[in-house]
Amino acid sequence: MRNLQGRLELCSINTATLGHREPLNQTIERIARAGFGGIAPWRREVEGGDVPRLARQIKALGLSVTGYCRSTYLPAATSAEFSANVEANRAALRDAAVLGAQCFVLVVGGLVPGSRDLEGARSQVVDGISMLLETARECGVPLALEPLHPMYAAKRAVVNTIAQALSICETVDPDRSGFIGIAVDVYHCWWDPELTASIATTGQANRILAYHVCDWLHETNDMLLDRGMMGDGVIDLPAVRSCVERAGYNGLVEVEIFSAQNWWQREPDEVLAICAERLQTVC
Amino acid sequence: MRNLQGRLELCSINTATLGHREPLNQTIERIARAGFGGIAPWRREVEGGDVPRLARQIKALGLSVTGYCRSTYLPAATSAEFSANVEANRAALRDAAVLGAQCFVLVVGGLVPGSRDLEGARSQVVDGISMLLETARECGVPLALEPLHPMYAAKRAVVNTIAQALSICETVDPDRSGFIGIAVDVYHCWWDPELTASIATTGQANRILAYHVCDWLHETNDMLLDRGMMGDGVIDLPAVRSCVERAGYNGLVEVEIFSAQNWWQREPDEVLAICAERLQTVC
């Protein structure tokens, strides 16, 4: 496993970690100044802005873009809505290309509101991803399918385990084109009894496109916005990274923390300093 | 699949559904009067009371005991503590036998507080269950290992999928003695992409000992105490029960709802009436 001590160039900050409190150009500046090697911005910060200019700023500061967050949810009640969702993702993929993103993160969406058809939603997800794969190839930006914790199955993502995500990758891309893989986020998968085995199967296909860290707090008070800083929770972070790297992943380690009551209340530079310290000591 | 219309004798109420607001003898009376065929009491209502007397009351009213809730958590920081946990479960198994319970529900416990050793906790669970199996046989009360939703992995149970629970059953009981199986609770497993496949494998071994229903609310506001009434959420209940019965389960359908802000605020008889109606129409 790589030693991250003194290697902040191997580390990236997902801008959600700072709570989206400043314009993206300031966040870019801050993250570069703190010495990180990468950034993962969100569409809400990018869309409607001067995308090429942001891309130039990121490049000039030597940051890589470890991911562009995130897809419009795919499952829909009507085919017109479904098509609109796919189109919104195509537009985002074009921005991802301008930004030079290493992947476009797919958070696929939950059940159609009012529906109990989990299989149907999963099937729409496979269809939507198939349609996006061609655009990904044209844009040169791979799709990183992110399995979300099962507690988000109803509202945010019907893809909930690494094994399931990998199976979708094989279905839509049996030739392993390099344009679809997975994002492994420790928060979503740390509990999985099949974690080690599932990650081990990714090696041959080079399916891991991103690796996200944070921590699961023993006392978690909110299902969405109470993620912990690495080291403050129960996840054996070195064990997971070791698996991921044994499977061939050699990209950056990206910090993604949603924390309304704690980290989003602190000064951005303080948060970045603590991320840097924890990345080098407990990840 | 069995039709539950007019068949409340096939339905059971877990006493947690009523919020543990009354002494157990009143709850038993209420559940019998409402026409249900079974009850699943909790140790907090039983221990320290006159257990044989409660057992006689339950029997006289014609109720079966679909489960006795629930085990003391197994993983511990010291071997003395671990042994004490096993002993506490042995004592509970003896009460389960007095009550005539069809199974003793194993909620196995989370990580040892302060520890990140998930594998270690899982290994302690297997050891503890092996030790309890002999007592279960002596008492004539099978152990029903209940996989809990992954969001409880840290604090309540390191057994989180049906496949994992079944694998533990095979490890500790390769001869399929009938004294260990699983409790399938829709709340914990509805999201699992392997749900249908996992349940289908239980048939040969007759491993399903209990089947619990409630619902997952689209808007879930609390990770523990915000379960929904059947029909109010997103779970395709007939689909799950159909799987479970195809695998050979012919026991009662037990309602278990933790709901601090809604159902536990209502009159117990109202809750029971709504349970009865929903069991017959949407389960």
TrEMBL record, chains A, B:
Domain Xylose isomerase-like TIM barrel: residue ranges: 29-267
The keyword Isomerase belongs to this UniProt entry's keyword annotation: yes
Keyword Cell membrane: no
Keywords: Isomerase
Gene3D superfamilies linked: Divalent-metal-dependent TIM barrel enzymes
Molecular-function GO terms, alphabetical: isomerase activity
InterPro entries reported in the protein's UniProt record: IolE/XylAMocC-like (IPR050312), Xyl_isomerase-like_sf (IPR036237), Xyl_isomerase-like_TIM-brl (IPR013022)
Protein name: Sugar phosphate isomerase/epimerase
Source organism per UniProt: Caballeronia udeis
